[in-house]
Amino acid sequence: MAERTKTRRWIVELLRWSSALFLLSTLAQAVLAGLFVTGEVDLLMWHDVNAQINSSVLLVVLLATILLWRPARASSWPFWITLALVTIVEIQKTLGYLRSVSFHIILGVLIFGMASVLTWWAFGYQLPPQRAKARKK
Questions:
Q1: N or C: which terminus of the chain carries fewer CB neighbours within 10 A?
Q2: Residue of 29, 87, 32, 30 lying closest to 58 (CA atoms)
Q3: Confidence class of residue 74 from pLDDT cuts 50, 70 and 90?
Q4: At what angle do helices 2-37 and 43-69 cross, to 10 degrees?
Q5: What is the torsional sign of CA 128, 126, 79, 7?
Q6: Closest CA relative to residue 118, chosen from 70, 31, 58
Q7: Cβ distance 115 to 26 under 8 Å?
Q8: End-to-end distance of the chain based on CA atoms, in angstroms?
Q9: What are the pLDDT digits (tens) for 24-73?
């Protein structure tokens, strides 16, 4: 029983820290974009590099939500939120490459909000207590 709890605990920790890293990376995207707009043209390259890092970290978040939902039997909504985030982030990257700045900014705010909610939930999530199995006689 304790072994199962340990298995679930590492999944929760993975979700917590990967979602926090995703949130920080998303915040860095806003900072890099803001500095680019003020004239630091070289930061556009870093904005692009961070977008790739952001997408990779989000895949780890997605994996953690799948593991928490299916094997660990937690709620499914974090998975669906993360799957929506993956879709929105890919649309966001496409809009950025197309230089569609107005929609790019709007989606960036949406991504940051969703990432904040997911991270807040992950750090507040408590593993449910394990039920003792009835003994067979």
A1: C
A2: 87
A3: confident
A4: 160
A5: negative
A6: 58
A7: yes
A8: 19
A9: 999 999 999 999 989 888 999 999 999 999 999 999 999 999 999 887 77
Q: pTM to 2 decimals?
A: 0.86
Measured CA to CA, the distance from residue 78 to residue 71 in angstroms comes to 14
SS3 100: coil
List the domain boundaries for the chain.
Answer: 7-124
- State both tokens at 119: 């991270």
Residue 55 has which token pair? Answer: 């997408």
Residue type, position 108, single letter: G
What is the biggest distance separating any 2 CA atoms in the chain, rounded to whole angstroms? 76
- Give me the pLDDT at residue 52, please: 96
